[in-house]
Design brief:
Elements lengths: L2 H10 L5 H7 L5 H11 L7 E5 L5 H8 L3 E5 L3 H10 L5 E2 L13 E7 L7 H11 E14 L4 H14 L3 H5 L4 H4 L7 E13 H9 L2 H4 L3 H18 L4 E14 L2
Parallel strand pairs: 1-2, 1-4, 2-3, 4-5
Antiparallel strand pairs: 5-7, 6-7
Helix pairs in contact: 2-10, 7-12, 10-12
Amino acid sequence: MTAASSHSTRAHSFNAAAAQYAANRPSYPPALLDVVEELAGRPLAGARVVDVGAGTGIATALLHARGAEVIAVEPGEGMAAQFRRAHPAIPLVRGTGDALPLADSSADLLTYAQAWHWTDPAHSIPEAMRVLRPGGALALWWNTYVLGIPWIAAQARRIQNHFGIDPAEEQAGTSARTADPEGRVDFSRRVVRWSRRVPVDTHLANLGSHSMFLVHGEKTSTTFLTAERTRLLEVFPDGIVEESYDVHLLVALTT
């Protein structure tokens, strides 16, 4: 399998696990949207916002709750179906960040929550600049595990040993250099740390909804998750896992 086909397979893997994704993936802290407003130089309330790669609507719902006029863009059939079930009042169109189904200068803010890495910046950067109005903003963000915490670091090593994929390398794609290799836009960067406490089975279902698990098949993933449950209960004997995240945020303004 080529790198391109592997990337595409992983990008499409979520459609078969949309309900699991919606039920177990973490959301984002209110402080994140505070910083988005700060760096964008305007409130979300009343802004025309396009949430690209919206998935099941985790970020879209937060933007909507802030008073933004949100349109969601999502390419995947399974994810879009889950989105429509959960958020029937929010408009959703099918499309990708590489070819946005939107008019020129039609948005104040474009957001990519956990989604920019599925685009090709050679296409998605020009598309974002086309759709944004003068004075608009492009905001990209990712929830990443805090690998400096011992139990998270140990779990990352086990994931690498089992799947041959290094979570630290996966998380390295959150830099401005990776987001825009040609340096066509000037990103401001912030990091927002937060945590959530969830039952161990929610944590495992969250892990299992990631593409590296989905593409390796049920047997391989189940083998890992079963063993991981035992290890986690040694660290968290009450069965409640404290997941710690750094949200890496990049915001670029248009002229």
